[in-house]
Amino acid sequence: MNDKPEIWFYHLERSSLDQVLPTLLEKTIERGWRAMIKSSHSHRLDEVDDTLWTFRDDSFLPHGRADQPHAERQPVLLSETGENLNGAQALFIVDDAELGGTEGFERCFIIFDGRDEPALQNARGRWKALKGQGANLAYWRQTDEGRWEKAA
Length: 152
Prior knowledge:
Elements: E1 6-12, H1 17-30, E2 35-38, H2 42-54, E3 64-65, E4 76-79, E5 90-93, E6 107-113, H3 117-132, E7 136-142, E8 148-150
Parallel strand pairs: 1-6, 1-7, 2-4, 2-5, 3-4, 5-6
Antiparallel strand pairs: 7-8
């Protein structure tokens, strides 16, 4: 485990969170990692919960809520507090939720909608603050074809 995880910013321009998040979670689980999704809005966690059940006809991503029984067993945990109950290696921040402590995580994903001006400004402020703290940062942006490329 790293004291300083990688912090990757994902700038959504062509896709929605519901399109991008399940793919990132699948890759996380394929790595053998557990994941936590943190949002400060319970309604967003409800939406993510629904998406993870229905994003593809032939499968679903095993997941649960932090405020439900057996949270520690979940490969993907949905949380408002960010308490790492399932021992996740990957933290996904959505809806401008606070990053909080990153100890114990290998990688943190800050996913923001570049079409939403307040979200874009918030992400720029976070990037600047984290860079000033010496964080290990990467910035990913979608190409015109919808693929992800590392831009910084």
